[in-house]
Amino acid sequence: MKAGILGTGHYAPEKILTNFDMEKIVDTSDEWIRTRTGIEERRIASDEEDTSDLAYKAALNALTEAGIKAEDLDLIMVATVTPDQSFPTVSCKIQDRLGANKAAAMDISAACAGFMYGVITAKQFIETGAYKHVLIIGADKLSKITDWTDRNTCVLFGDGAGAAVMGPVSEEKGILSFELGSDGSGGKHLAQEGSHIVMNGREVFKFAVRQMPESSVNVVEKAGYAKEDVDYLIPHQANIRIMEAARQRLGIEPEKLAVNVNKYGNTSAASIPIALSEGVKNGKIKDNDLVVLVGFGGGLTWGAVALKWGK
Ligand code: ACO
């Protein structure tokens, strides 16, 4: 049995904070942010909207696209580092709001690589036949742990949610290969300390610019394809320079790289599923395409899959 993606969804809060708005908050410039990161604006959730609200909207969108009813879900996983509270989990709140009455529910904490951890966990349950339909949501409201006085970090992040419904697909489709990893010795470079994010940007950059290209190549080779066979690359949207490094390592054309970091900034666990959902909706991802999803994050953590799109 092969596991694949049956439907995707995403949600980004309405409020837009541009780089010009950031210039009024900290000593920075649109030019610095754009050239160093590729970010032009980000979305910020309102005080009334918490992570579970973002996650719920993305989930509804994914269930509709998949044509799956909430009652048919066996498991709900929410990847987040900014849950509404530590318990009840965001996934339990979603289970209740959706009325997914036979679903188990758990949150996953792997920072920006969280959605990849969720997808790869879902694959195991589906391929063993234990579960049929699994909902994975990546959702973060990083704005609530952002230090709005620290220009090194506050310009980078945004809020949002993305989701995918996974289930069995035909033999030639679905997830072909995966890679997951962690290196706790690098945890100090990107962490929540007290109530805020602290980051050694240069160290995280060095790690990411090595790991994302390497993991992308590894999953393509494990799947038995050549690097340049990749039709669409969806990297974690943290910094355009890191994303470009992965694209160049695969040797694929610029149009085959998913880019929305300009619109949303780094939305942590939400970034890959938002880009995936947009790629499906704007027709960039087509049936039978070889798609690579690859992420890295605090922990340090990373994860990647190569998959053949379609049911
Ligand atoms: N505006 C203006 N100047 C700034 C800003 C800002 N917003 N932020 C930092 N600077 C200054 C610093 O103070 C420093 O000045 P100094 O040299 O006088 O000390 C200088 O700019 C730093 O410049 P560089 O080191 O050349 O910046 P770099 O090219 O490394 O870019 C960046 C910094 C964008 C943070 C980069 O290192 C990066 O993207 N790192 C990876 C970060 C990342 O991906 N984090 C998310 C991980 S995923 C997750 O789990 C959340």
From TrEMBL:
Top-level taxon: Bacteria
Subcellular location: Cytoplasm
CDD domains: KAS_III
Keyword Transferase: yes
InterPro entries: ACP_syn_III_C, ACP_syn_III_N, FabH, Thiolase-like
Annotated Beta-ketoacyl-[acyl-carrier-protein] synthase III C-terminal domain residues: 221-309
GO annotation terms (biological process): fatty acid biosynthetic process
Entry's EC annotation: 2.3.1.180
Swiss-Prot/TrEMBL catalytic activity: pentanoyl-CoA + malonyl-[ACP] + H(+) = 3-oxoheptanoyl-[ACP] + CO2 + CoA; malonyl-[ACP] + propanoyl-CoA + H(+) = 3-oxopentanoyl-[ACP] + CO2 + CoA; 3-methylbutanoyl-CoA + malonyl-[ACP] + H(+) = 5-methyl-3-oxohexanoyl-[ACP] + CO2 + CoA; (2S)-2-methylbutanoyl-CoA + malonyl-[ACP] + H(+) = (4S)-4-methyl-3-oxohexanoyl-[ACP] + CO2 + CoA
Active site (UniProt): 112, 236, 266
Pathway membership, UniProt: Lipid metabolism; fatty acid biosynthesis
Enzymatic class: transferase
Gene Ontology MF terms in the entry: 3-oxoacyl-[acyl-carrier-protein] synthase activity; beta-ketoacyl-acyl-carrier-protein synthase III activity
Protein function: Catalyzes the condensation reaction of fatty acid synthesis by the addition to an acyl acceptor of two carbons from malonyl-ACP. Catalyzes the first condensation reaction which initiates fatty acid synthesis and may therefore play a role in governing the total rate of fatty acid production. Possesses both acetoacetyl-ACP synthase and acetyl transacylase activities. Has some substrate specificity for branched chain acyl-CoA, determining the biosynthesis of branched-chain of fatty acids instead of straight-chain. Catalyzes the condensation reaction of fatty acid synthesis by the addition to an acyl acceptor of two carbons from malonyl-ACP. Catalyzes the first condensation reaction which initiates fatty acid synthesis and may therefore play a role in governing the total rate of fatty acid production. Possesses both acetoacetyl-ACP synthase and acetyl transacylase activities. Its substrate specificity determines the biosynthesis of branched-chain and/or straight-chain of fatty acids.
Entries under PANTHER family matching the protein: 3-OXOACYL-[ACYL-CARRIER-PROTEIN] SYNTHASE, BETA-KETOACYL-[ACYL-CARRIER-PROTEIN] SYNTHASE III, CHLOROPLASTIC
HAMAP family on file: FabH (MF_01815)
Domain note: The last Arg residue of the ACP-binding site is essential for the weak association between ACP/AcpP and FabH.
Assembly, per entry: Homodimer.
UniProt family annotation: Belongs to the thiolase-like superfamily. FabH family.
This protein's name: Beta-ketoacyl-[acyl-carrier-protein] synthase III
